[in-house]
């Protein structure tokens, strides 16, 4: 039995979000294919995430990242909050990120979340030959919606969403990475429904082998 962590980063309702709609179709197909697996949902806009602030940096400076210790209650509480986010991530075998593109990148809540995952000797380690990810064997899918087309063409140089997520997860050792891209729904409004349907079909296919 595997555990899938379904991570969403969109404050909209499912009915008003292309990425969330396609994500729900992915989940339904995955659950049907893997009835014994555990699916845990994490809404980053509802989660109490701890950002890196002065207290976190102070605690890390004294005790090192990921130690969960500090000499003040405020610092200790914040470090432990970040640690709980990391432990939830580590407990999963598979990850599904569902995001829109905001201003050529991902919603800032995603960056705050990722900051909780980059902890030395937890998700990566330094070696004589450079950093090595410690999450080998885990896999991820990114379901990502954009109003324009960014995977190719003239706007590709402004694509800092999906490439970023692929890069940071790869750094942590998650090399098995797939993307379901819902592209061009704003610049091709008459084709938006067909674009969503194509993405749903792709998501269902990825889910069956995920």
TrEMBL record:
It is an enzyme of class 1 (oxidoreductase). GO terms for molecular function: electron transfer activity; FMN binding; oxidoreductase activity, acting on NAD(P)H as acceptor; oxidoreductase activity, acting on NAD(P)H, quinone or similar compound as acceptor. Its EC number is 1.6.5.-, 1.7.1.17. Its cofactor is FMN. It catalyses: 2 a quinone + NADH + H(+) = 2 a 1,4-benzosemiquinone + NAD(+); N,N-dimethyl-1,4-phenylenediamine + anthranilate + 2 NAD(+) = 2-(4-dimethylaminophenyl)diazenylbenzoate + 2 NADH + 2 H(+). Residues 3-204 form the Flavodoxin-like fold domain. The keyword Oxidoreductase applies. FMN binds at residues 17-19. Pfam families: Flavodoxin_2. Binds 1 FMN per subunit. Keywords: Flavoprotein, FMN, NAD, Oxidoreductase. It comes from the Bacteria. Belongs to the azoreductase type 1 family. Also exhibits azoreductase activity. Catalyzes the reductive cleavage of the azo bond in aromatic azo compounds to the corresponding amines. Homodimer. This is FMN dependent NADH:quinone oxidoreductase. It comes from Salipaludibacillus neizhouensis. The lineage of its organism: Bacteria, Bacillati, Bacillota, Bacilli, Bacillales. The gene is azoR.
